[in-house]
Amino acid sequence: MMERRAPRPSELRPLLKFKKPTLSPKERRLAAALTIEDLRAIAKRRTPKAAFDYTDGAAEEELSLARARQAFRDVTFHPRILRDVSKVDTSRTVLGTPSALPFGIAPTGFTRMMQTEGEYAGASAAGAAGIPYTLSTMGTASIEDVRDANPSGRNWFQLYMWKDRERSMALVDRAAAAGYEALVVTVDVPVAGARLRDTRNGMTIPPTLTPRTVANAIPRPAWWINFLTTEPLAFASLDRWSGTVAELLDTMFDPTVDYADLAWIKDQWKGKLVVKGVQSVEDASRLAELGVDAIVLSNHGGRQLDRAPVPFHLLPEVAREVGDATEIHLDTGIMSGADIVAALALGARFTLIGRAYLYGLMAGGREGVDKTIEILSTQIERTMRLLGVSSLDELRPDHVTQLERLVPRR
Ligand SMILES: Cc1cc2nc3c(=O)[nH]c(=O)nc-3n(C[C@H](O)[C@H](O)[C@H](O)COP(=O)(O)O)c2cc1C
Which atom of ligand 1 approaches the CA of 301 most closely? Predict the structure, then answer.
């Protein structure tokens, strides 16, 4: 039988681990988040339903997005052992300049609706982390203000070609004058995708107060206080708009844009040119021949064509076809640093994050975006170490296989 005795205070003291009470509620909230999913859960609690669903949702049955995320979850990593991984280098040269991490922030429209710091939070957090930031044509902060939020960092400008060419090109000129490094031309929006959550929620721009939105606002006071007490929410590069997002896209965007238009834009823009929304090997090769600097394999986070190819599935074949002359970037479905490592192993030079960044933004403004970057960066480093690589250039296709479930049959 064990003999029992009372514990001594000196034995108890080291066991008492009370959390330091110095953290603010926001810091506490963010400190508890270990994954991007955790940030998503916080974001959902704190953001009005229409704004959260606009961000979280995708087109039609949301199969493109679900499949893209599943494809990353279906990765098997093949580690090497007995390598010195005491130091790991997570930097990656993209468009000729090093980025501290192998991902940048994807362009997202109407970002100040998710949380009032919006584009400013994204751009300044990207600058602090040494990664590129992309401002959308549909942004809610101007080209110049974003440059001022990230004055010594790398800013890219995402262009949608409008029916009014002159106005589109006026934005391009402003981006050039403000020192933007790259023009990212998005080519997967000839018309708007059917974002059914937005339709069901009656999502309008700007958000309107109906009995339903007011009821939904009661447990989310911080968002509304921010919304009502900061600079009014508006598209920085468009006239005032009232209507649904889909109506806006269909009124503005030009469904006639083709390869000749792209070649014309290429002549106008002296910086780096990136084409975003590439979804076939054939288009990837054609763009490489045209001499663009990078293509982004992307289905717009599943917000356009539903049942679109999974960009991660296209990657190996595109990498074989396109080779090194044109950089291959990839987005859609990235929810962890391990997803990013898998994409680099299969031939992506760089990746972009959309929702992963927006969940952080909604969870805690600028600090929330910092948290997203920190989570992904920690996951990248740990995955590299466990794979036995100390620099990203050591990643090879044979570090990764994909479970067959979602691999297309040919
Ligand atoms: C709320 C939201 C708004 C977006 N707005 C734009 C946009 O204005 N222009 C654009 O090229 N892509 C836009 N995208 C697509 C992103 O740039 C990116 O391709 C996509 O989010 C990547 O998928 P992920 O969210 O799974 O990371 C948007 C995505 C989201 C989630």
Answer: 23
Cα 165 to ligand 1 centre (Å): 23
Q: Which residue has tokens 């000749």?
A: 260
Q: DSSP string spanning 182-210?
A: EEEEE-S-SS----HHHHHHT--BS----
Query: Given a cut of 70, is residue 410 above it in pLDDT?
Result: no
The answer, yes or no, to whether residue 205 has pLDDT greater than 90, is no
**Degrees, nearest 5: CA angle 397-405-383:** 40
Output the residue whose Cα is nearest ligand 1's atom 21: 354
Cβ atoms 168, 162 nearer than 8 A: yes
State pLDDT tens for residues 43-100: 999 999 999 999 999 999 999 999 999 999 999 999 999 999 999 999 999 999 999 9
Quick one: DSSP state of residue 403? -
Distance of CA 90 to the CA centre of its chain: 18
Band (17; pLDDT cuts 50, 70, 90): confident
The per-residue pLDDT for 161 is 86
Per the residue annotation, which of 300, 313, 329, 399 is the catalytic one? 300
Domains and CATH numbers, the chain: 25-406 (3.20.20.70)
Report the alpha-carbon distance of residue 132 to residue 257 in Å, rounded: 27
Nearest 10 degrees: Cα torsion 318, 321, 322, 324: 110
Quick check: is 300 catalytic? yes
